[in-house]
Specification:
Blueprint: H1 19-32, E1 37-43, H2 44-47, E2 57-63, E3 89-96, E4 99-109, H3 110-116, E5 129-132, E6 134-138, H4 140-146, E7 150-153, H5 160-175, H6 179-197, H7 209-217, H8 226-233, H9 241-259, H10 263-270, H11 272-280, H12 282-294, H13 341-344, E8 355-361, E9 367-373, H14 375-384, E10 388-391, E11 396-399, E12 408-415, E13 421-428
Parallel strand pairs: 2-4, 8-13
Antiparallel strand pairs: 1-2, 1-6, 3-4, 5-7, 8-9, 10-11, 12-13
Helix pairs in contact: 5-6, 5-9, 5-12, 6-8, 6-9, 8-9, 9-12, 10-11
């Protein structure tokens, strides 16, 4: 049912109908049903107390199972055809408070309805659901089982195989010059991404489709450009088919290194072959073939963070107030900065206004990586304790670990004698290199020198 009526402020949530209204509708729906009713449940925005005056009143009418089993004494067997799921929907427009209200009704087999609670919600981007509900009426035999103040549904499994297959559909549509096919397949692909990324991310539960979209876009462990590419693939940001196809390719290729440490979970749901292909590089090679079709440009950021942060509940990303992941993307060396003028006067910058930052482990002295800072990035690093850099490829600031969980907590910063390089001592959480290695300097080169004769 939809319940947005009564006197209320225009900007506030609509008030739920009074008990008499709900009781009246519960009685009416029981009489109108063509199968025995065992319960009536209020769902949606009104059950969440988030409705507006235009929100539907969503009601589930739970009826006896289609196999003829009854809910209890006095309930006659169902007469509909065996084995056929029962999900008849009725729409009602009713007067309330001087205006029309839409009451949306779905009649559901009660046993199937209960079983459905053990399955992922198809609208939730693979995330677990905790949605408030309100029981309006039930027969005694079923009340204990369906009187649930919150309807919980589990997260979906990481559907990696389907994700890769769907990228193949995007590529096939590009080859066939089918722009509509590209957009449809890319939208399906984007809806799968959060379920595949879920093992690497902290747990989050959602209450509505809108909340699910927000959570799906805000996953802390995600590829560079993830939010932009998701919006593009979902059709929520403008882009031509070529751009949509490239975004789909970036999403999948960026997700692979993030989920590789969770190959065991992939094996449990999809079998050992796919998990082995994820680890030994076969999936990467296959995506490389598709990437040639999609003209995928791999992200150039050094912070692709191949190894995700700790699992759910073990960490959370809390950016410092003046150190957002992105900001002040103005071109050239004259980006505004709050850096202490006395420090700024000592810097010798490149023509792009940058200074090289050599990052090492504070405790061991091990060199971890090299990045770039401008004046503002240095200011944020010095004042927030979080290593912040300037991305030359993306033209924006990035906080190490904000998307990966591989944080760098700054313990010291030193300027070299010429003022053109910084030495940053950090406490490194996880891997510093986007390949998943502890340090970016893991490839030894052969060194030879002429023998020295006395």
């Amino acid at each position: 049912m939809k319940i947005g009526f009564g006197h209320h402020d225009a900007v506030g949530p609509a008030q739920l109908p009074d008990t008499a209204f709900l009781d009246d509708w519960a009685a009416r729906l029981r009489q109108a049903a063509d199968r025995p009713v065992v319960g009536i449940m209020l769902r949606g925005s009104h059950a969440r107390r988030a409705a507006t005056e235009h929100s539907d009143v969503d009601v589930d009418v739970l009826v006896v199972a289609d196999d003829g089993r009854t809910a209890g004494p006095g309930i006659r067997p169902a007469t509909s055809r065996r084995g056929t799921p029962y999900a008849a929907r009725r729409a009602y427009l009713t007067e309330y408070g001087g205006r029309l209200v839409h009451v949306s009704v779905a009649a559901r087999d009660v046993r199937s309805w209960v079983r459905r609670l053990g399955q992922p919600a198809d609208w939730a981007f693979g995330l677990p659901v905790t949605a408030p509900a309100r029981l309006l009426w039930a027969v005694p035999e079923w009340r204990r089982r369906i009187d649930l103040p919150v309807l919980c549904q589990p997260a979906d499994e990481p559907r990696l195989e389907e994700l890769v297959a769907t990228l193949g559909k995007v590529a096939a549509a590009r080859v066939a010059d089918d722009p509509v096919g590209v957009r449809l397949a890319a939208a399906d692909l984007a809806r799968l991404c959060p379920s595949v990324l879920r093992p690497a991310n902290p747990s989050v539960r959602v209450v509505s489709r809108r909340a699910a979209l927000t959570a799906a876009l805000d996953l802390p462990v995600a590829p560079p450009g993830y939010r932009h590419d998701m919006l593009l693939c979902l059709g929520l940001r403008a882009g031509d088919p070529a751009a949509v196809g490239a975004a789909a390719g970036r999403l999948v290729t960026g997700i692979l290194p993030l989920i590789r440490p969770y190959a065991d979970e992939i094996a449990a749901t999809h079998g050992a072959d796919l998990a082995e292909a994820l680890v030994d590089g076969r999936v990467d090679r296959y995506l490389g073939e598709l990437g040639r079709v999609l003209r995928t440009v791999p992200p150039a950021s050094r912070d692709t963070s191949a190894v995700p942060g700790p699992r759910a509940g073990e960490w959370s990303t809390v950016p410092a107030p003046d150190a957002p992941l992105t900001g002040a993307p103005a071109p050239g060396p004259a980006r505004p900065s709050r850096l202490d003028p006395a420090i700024a006067a000592k810097l010798r910058r490149t023509p792009d206004g940058l200074v090289a930052a050599v990052v090492r482990a504070h405790d061991s002295g091990e060199v971890l990586m090299v990045a770039w800072m401008d004046d503002e990035a240095l200011h944020r690093t010095l004042t927030t304790g979080r290593a912040t850099y300037w991305s030359r490829s993306r033209g924006e600031y990035w906080v190490k670990g904000a998307t990966s969980g591989n944080h760098q907590y700054v313990r010291s910063v030193a300027l070299d004698c010429d003022g053109d390089a910084l030495l940053v001592g950090v406490e490194q959480v996880g891997a510093a290199c986007h390949t998943g290695q502890r340090t970016c300097f893991f490839t030894d080169l052969p060194v030879s020198s002429p023998e020295v004769t006395p």
